[in-house]
Amino acid sequence: MTWNPDQYHQFKDARSAPARDLQAMLPDLPYARVVDLGCGTGEQTAQLAKRFAQAEVLGLDSSADMLARAAAKLPNLRFEQGEIQNLSGDFNLMYSNAALQWLPDHPRLLARLWEHLNPGGVLAVQVPANHDHASHRLLTETAAKFGTELSGFTRFGTAHGASPVLTPAAYAEVLDGLGAQDVTALSKVYPVVLNGAEGLIEWTKGTALVPYLSRLSEADGARFLDAYRDKLRAEFPGERVYYAFTRVLFVAHKPA
User: Fold this and answer.
1) Long-range pairs for 213-218 at CB < 8 Å and ≥24 separation?
2) In this structure, what DSSP letter does residue 156 have?
3) Which of 73, 95, 114, 128 yields a CA-CA distance of 20 to 30 A from 149?
4) 202 φ/ψ sector (left φ>0, alpha ψ -120 to 50, else beta)
5) Helix 168-177 / helix 106-114 crossing angle, nearest 10 deg
6) Whether the Cβ atoms of residue 121 and residue 89 lie closer than 8 Å to each other
7) Are 251 and 183 in contact (CB under 8 A)?
8) DSSP E strands, 109-180
């Protein structure tokens, strides 16, 4: 997928609010090795490095464009390009803000990550949970009309609830099954007011639209956006859209 850091940061304040809450949930411990999974342009990596100055901090992301921005802005921090599911090494704090939603099979993924968490360590994750919102439903409907151009790709498939994101209770159960202690898992709404259908387009261009537009030519991408915009305007005809953006946050401790 081709990520655009400028597009993603167009709604920087709104996207940062859940990260601030996740940071507040972190216990102050003498972490030796910290990894920021899906670090993007490195804002969270920098905050972790500042807060846990004694730690060796790594930012990991699959996007070369995001990492180039991170490295240019934060030359004193360490960043690597790689896939979260292929993580190697052992860490005392594993932190991920708005990244794991792109990966399938979260019970299996968490089990894989848990293997790389040292005893006494902490896993902290935040993921968007708005896959049942009309903006995502209409995006899937639009993708179905472009089946040939997209080679049949749809992010969540056609079935409702096909997102890999689980409920807070389900995450807590998975983590308990891994032997986690002191698990906190919650859901919180972060409302965003957008400028009608066009505002929704700009919001989704930074995230949900990325895997679709990355697979289309410029001309097909323009047609896709026009078709998606028409659906959004029919669903949200007003000039103001209250977008109740829902996030799931959880923190778990691995027994020492």
Assistant:
1) 213/2, 214/1, 214/2, 215/149, 215/150, 215/151, 215/153, 216/146, 216/149, 216/150, 217/149
2) S
3) 128
4) alpha
5) 40
6) no
7) yes
8) 117-128
- 230 contacts: CB under 8 Å, gap ≥ 6: none
CB count within 10 Å of CB 48 equals: 26
Per the structure block, which two tokens stand in for 109? 């993924």
Q: How many residues can be counted in the chain?
A: 256
**Residue 228 in tokens:** 């998606």
Contact status, residue 94 vs residue 37, Cβ threshold 8 Å: yes
DSSP 3-state percent helix, strand, coil across the chain (nearest 5): 40, 25, 35
Q: How far is CA 167 from the centre of its chain?
A: 15
Check the CA dihedral 153-12-194-249 and report its sign. positive
